[in-house]
Structure prediction request, 489 residues.
Amino acid sequence: MKRISIDPVTRLEGHGKIDIFLDEKGDVANAYFQIPELRGFEVFCVGRQAEDMPNLTDRICGVCPEAHHMAASKALDAVFHVEPPPAGKKLRELMYSIFFATDHTTHFYALGGPDFIVGPDAPAAERNILGVVAKVGMEVAGKVLKMRRDGHNLIQLMAGRRVQPNWGVPGGVSRGINEEQRREIELRGREAIDFALFSIQAFKDIVLGNKAYVDLIVGDIYTHKTYSMGMVDANNKVNFYDGKVRIVDPDGVELLKYSPNEYLDVIAEHVEPWTYLKFPYLKKVGWKGLVDGKDSGVYKATPLSRLNASDGMATPKAQAAYEEFFKTLGGKPVHHTLATHWARLVELLYATERWVELATDPEITSPNFRTLPTATPDEGVGIVEAPRGTLTHHYKTDSRGILTEVNLVVGTTNNYAPISMSVKKAAQGLIKKGVVNEGLLNMVEMAFRAYDPCFGCATHSLPGQMPLVVRLLAPDGEVIRQLTQNLDG
Prediction:
């Protein structure tokens, strides 16, 4: 067996393994994107105090702890039958908007960006954040680092820690903000809006200004027509913190909307023996396998699907960017997976505008930021939009508030079926007659990287180590080539 190391890492969170099966002609017959690690959070949380969940689940990974912290806090509201006061809700959404802007910045510039800014065929040693810095220059790199530094500083200011907050409680938050802190948050938010506008313009200049990249985005090998999922407000505008989850079919027609406590009526999970991740699908349509189309219950829950599932954005600059997005790509819905990078920037702009809206809300410094719960706890569901997909926390407790059952449907899990389909289709479109090289394999990886998958929510690895195995198998099962990274140690 021949082993070839891919260096640098492949810019995803967690462990991944791709098996590509070739037919007699050397073309791709099938491909599997496997998650070989087991998540145990639902099991080892049972028996703990329910109030521990915001601080327990934000340890699932270091990428989206704020999302788990917020979904857990909302689930506790339902478990304890308590409604946070308006200031409590607005403070939560403010911190969450800051997190969203910070997280989307990370993915665009450090994870997804190298594929376009440096180029999919560039040497592996250059397809990383250092390669991006070399391309765009130190001034732009400084903007990116400032955006991330400001975001994490403000998360610490509001929620106690730069990563893994200690703040959400049933009925609201544990502390508010004063006027001096509010002014600091507003100032950084206005700078963040400028950064988001700069990022969208950079995408237009670098990606949309390159015909080869545009052809790649709208090409068939990165396209799947599936259902789209995303949380919307009462006006069907994108909302990350609160509202109902809306699902539209591959033609963009609304299939249904559901409240958090109705999710089990809508979503079921299919199991395959070759992976530890489940495949959520729409019960109303049914599981038909890893196929797209209106008859398949496979759906996407990504920045792109959130735009598809909504009627627009609730802030003016983001709404203009939303309209330009669909006008440029031929109207709604858009099914080009690589367009998810652009959709992510539209959301980045919305998050920064919403950040300033909330920072200038007269109620945001109110001392009434929590309602103390008095009811007996029992069961509750909390849903937020994580940057990489719809995130659901479902808890059951006894009368003392001890957890008896926990279920988490994380953003990446929602997208496991379309990710698997995208990997297979990209492999089939790119690998012919057994000819493969690092550039082609990177383009296969681009199919899943656009989803911004966070397998850290399902798996755990040592910081900085992201093992990946890609195997090419002949029809008789013989491994004819294996490419690996970070498997040693």
